[in-house]
Design goal:
The protein has 2 domains: 41 residues, no CATH class; 132 residues. The chain is built from 8 helices and no strands.
Length: 233
């Protein structure tokens, strides 16, 4: 049997047995250059993320501000991710030890402003200094909560917690005004007011600190129960 003759054509394809010969010729004659395009080279300098692609969760804290800015500008962040990345950036900034000084200044301004507003609302005018007593009571209660609960059981940055105690409560309370007012009562011969003011301040501030300690314990127990309920679910 003689070998099959080659098919004469522009491709000079060898003859193949039926029934695949017609299919092969059809594929060869109808082949287009764009059927299998060569993949383009990826330019990593200019290429951007596809629209809607989420940003990775693992972010280096040192590169956070730059990545956060680029992500917001390119529109790769939805509302939830925007809030979470903003909270992460704020926490990173507040955790910096250099943030303690401006935080103390800010908290001191707030504490002094609150104390001034209370003294304007409750002026002493030579009588019983109620404003000084109130700020010292509230300050002892708040400082105990900050020291016993906020500073130990929460995830707030250490410079922020320290500035709340030194700046906010420190500027809001005053032992110097208490001492000066007691001395003024003694010099004026108002011994009854002096004794009542001294006893009321010592007793109420101690009770306020004790109440703050108990409140811290209650908050800690509530937090533990909430954590247990969440773990059980």
């Amino acid at each position: 049997m003689a070998p099959p003759k080659p098919i004469q054509g522009i491709w000079n394809v060898p003859s193949i047995p039926e029934p695949t010969k017609g299919r092969a010729l059809h594929l060869l004659r109808n082949k287009k250059p764009t059927d299998s395009p060569r993949p383009a080279k990826a330019n990593h300098r200019t290429s951007e993320r596809p629209k809607g692609e989420k940003i990775g969760r693992s972010i280096d804290a040192r590169a956070l501000p730059l990545r956060y800015t680029l992500a917001v500008e390119r529109g790769h962040m939805n509302t939830h991710e925007h809030n979470s990345h903003f909270a992460l950036a704020a926490r990173h900034a507040l955790s910096d030890p250099h943030a303690l000084t401006p935080l103390v200044l800010l908290m001191g301004f707030l504490g002094a402003s609150l104390r001034y507003a209370l003294e304007v609302a409750l002026p002493a005018q030579g009588g019983f200094p109620a404003a000084t007593l109130i700020v010292n009571i509230f300050g002892c209660f708040t400082l105990e909560i900050i020291n016993q609960y906020v500073g130990r059981r929460t995830q707030l940055p250490a410079p922020l917690v320290k500035s709340m105690g030194i700046g906010l409560v420190g500027a809001f309370t005053t032992i110097s005004a208490f001492s000066t007012e007691c001395l003024a009562f003694l010099q004026a011969g108002r011994y009854e007011i002096f004794a009542a003011y001294m006893a009321a301040t010592i007793a109420t501030t101690f009770i306020a600190a004790l109440a703050g300690h108990r409140a811290s314990r209650a908050l800690e127990a509530h937090r533990a129960r909430k954590t247990e309920v969440g773990a059980a679910r």
